[in-house]
Every structure is written in C-alpha cells, then in structure tokens.
Amino acid sequence: MNNGGFLFDTDGSVLHAHGGHIIRHGEYFYWYGEDRRRDFYVSCYRSADLKNWEFRRHVLTVNSSPDLSRNGRRVNIERPKVVYCEATGKFVMWAHYENGADYTEAAACVAVCDVPDGDFEYHGHFRPLGHMSRDCTLFTDPVTRAVYFISASRDNADLHVYRLTEDCTRVEKLVNVLFPGQFREAPAVFYRDGKYHMLTSACTGWAPNQGCHASADSMEGAWSPLLPFGDETTFHSQPAFVLPHGGEYYYFADRWGGFPMSHPFDYSKSSYVILKLSFTETGSPFIEWNDSFPDFN
Prior knowledge:
CATH class of the domain at 18-223: Mainly Beta
Number of helices: 0
Distance between the termini: 16 Å
Helix content: under 10%
CATH superfamily of the domain at 18-223: Glycosyl hydrolase domain, family 43
Largest sheet: 4 strands, antiparallel
CATH architecture of the domain at 18-223: 5 Propeller
Structural class: mainly beta
CATH topology of the domain at 18-223: Tachylectin-2, Chain A
Number of strands: 23
Strand content: over 45%
Strand order of the largest sheet: 1-2-3-4
Shape: globular
C-alpha cells in the first residue's frame, strides 16, 4: 500500500480513525479515531498484527448522549484518545468537544467503557480547571504510572499538561504549561531511554506545516526548546500519535483532505502517513519518507 493513502479494514471498507490513538490490550491492538460520517463520532478497530484491521463498532455516536447533539445538529468530537485505567480496570476516552457551529466551546469530554470495543458511556464535556482545551492527547507515564491529559489552551497559544485523578476521568492538577505563545497543536507524546518526547504541529487549520519536537527528563519538569521535525510540511501530515512496538517507534499521522489538499476542504479524502522513527546519536527523533506503510515485523 502507498504511504499517504487510504487504509482499509478486513471488509474492504475505508478505515476511518483520524486524529486517533492505538492501545494494546490482551492479544489485540485497538485503534480509535474520528469518523465524521452520518451520526458517527468515534470508531474502533482491532488487529493482532497492526496490518489487518477489523471494524468493531462506533463506540461514540450522536445517540450516546443528548449532549452530543445541539438542536439536531452534530457537535464536533475530535482527537479521541483512550487509556486503560489500571486503578479501575476501565477504558477511558478523552477528546476535544466543540458545539458543531464554531470553535468557541474549546472543551474536553470524557467517556468510559468496561471493554475496549464496547459502547462508551459519555460523562459530559467541560473546560479542565476552567481552561480552554482543543487538540489533545493522553499519555501513561511508564515510570510513575501517572496518566496525563495534554491539550492546547489559551486559544491554542499554550499546551497544558494535566495530571489525572486515579480513575482517569477528572483533572487532579495542572502540572505544566509548555511552549507559551508558540501556538502548537496535535501533541503526540512517547517515552524512550529515560527521555519524554513530544511532537507537535503549528496551527494552520487543515493545511500541513513544519512539525516540531521537544524532550524532557519528566512530564512535569522543564522541556527543551522546540526543534524542527520532518520537512516543512512534515511530509504533508499532522501528528496523531506515536506507537512503540517491538523496540521500534512509529509515527502515525493524518493527511487531512488528501494530497494535494482539496479546496474546499473535503474530510472524506483524508488519509494516513505512517513512518518508522529514527533517532540521532543524542536521541532526537526524525523521520524519512518511505513510499510504503511499515510492515511492523
């Protein structure tokens, strides 16, 4: 398959999981992401090998809660991320919530399920500690086991890092404000060899831009300055998440609106870029273009 193109599930249908996240539970990987068709919000696929993806269900839809429809109009649920909560044994989803008419809501929303691919119970939307919240991600610290919610705040000028409560459904504390005034979004966080890494994009709407990378010794400590990641368009992609697997790290990204991007923007043409991360001698990640999707062997 050609990198930057569509992916398909085991039924031959286009895979809709944009702005998403993959977790591993038991023998399967579960891929959650946006599906903006009809009355859908969040889809879930599973795979044993990261190549063959079986569609499981739409785990969040317009019918999941009255809060997910405004006067018969769809709201926007973007960048859904799911974490397995070790304290409760439940699967907890956080996402970006907007009212469907504009981007003034700037809120987060939470949903919970007993199984990874069931109907998630919606718990409502809110601004974390009163702060605006847009593009977001979840990260479980492999060292401390703390779970963090990272989201763009202050009209996207800053990235906020929140430590979550033990049940992963609420914010315990704002522990960091990153890159103030630098307008970064699409955060993707991973841990490697004692360092925490974050990839982000600039704020240019759906259009691709120069990705950046920063690193730190702890999630709650000081982070390095932002440095370029990828080329000037990050190979026409925007970060969704980084997947560690088999000792390697894989950059999963969205190519919004296809290539070249459709005008006006057409979400149905959005596709995927997946590249294996490489690292410099000092541990900084970088990507090089490959025409094919990784084989994950």
